[in-house]
């Protein structure tokens, strides 16, 4: 199972880099259970060098418990280290668009004003991403047929204060 996850995570990473979203850190946290601990080397080998795999020690406090999450969750932080999205199942399946969209929003949001961590071309990159998203939405939205119909899909944001 982690081979499929690893391949999809790497595909997502490569896709985002190709779109100009650089300097994003990816960390996979290995589960603390005995089976996962024994398979750590396989997990580590299944991801690229651009993705860090964190090995929990069985004696330490569980990372997922500390972060109020579960082992299949995605926690997405902005460049200042603030938690922007906490995606649990089924929203954390990489076959869906939720994780990618959450990363793009966290990358492009500029909540604090000017930031020394912002990439120089981020405005152009994010404008292009927004334009592509609007075009994709226009393709799939049903055309008005005289009836009032509003159907919107939104990514749910969960703000957490830490």
From TrEMBL:
Protein name: SEPP1 protein
Entry-linked InterPro entries: Selenoprotein-P_N, SeP
Location (main, coarse): secreted
Region (Disordered): 141-162
Keyword DNA damage part of the UniProt annotation: no
Species whose genome carries this gene: Chauna torquata (Southern screamer)
Gene Ontology CC terms: extracellular region
Subcellular location(s) per record: Secreted
């Amino acid at each position: 199972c982690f081979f499929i996850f690893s391949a999809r995570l790497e595909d997502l990473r490569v896709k985002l880099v190709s779109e100009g979203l650089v300097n994003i850190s990816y960390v996979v946290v290995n589960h603390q259970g005995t089976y996962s601990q024994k398979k750590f080397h396989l997990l580590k080998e299944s991801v690229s060098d651009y993705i860090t795999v964190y090995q929990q020690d069985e004696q330490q406090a569980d990372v997922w418990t500390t972060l109020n999450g579960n082992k299949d969750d995605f926690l997405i932080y902005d460049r200042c280290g603030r938690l922007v999205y906490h995606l649990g199942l089924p929203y954390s399946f990489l076959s869906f668009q939720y994780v990618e969209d959450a990363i793009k929003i966290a990358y492009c949001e500029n909540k604090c004003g000017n930031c020394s961590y912002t990439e120089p071309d981020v405005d152009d990159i994010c404008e292009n991403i927004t334009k592509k998203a609007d075009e994709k939405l226009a393709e799939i939205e049903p055309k008005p047929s005289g009836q009032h119909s509003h159907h919107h899909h939104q990514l749910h944001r969960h703000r957490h204060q830490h």
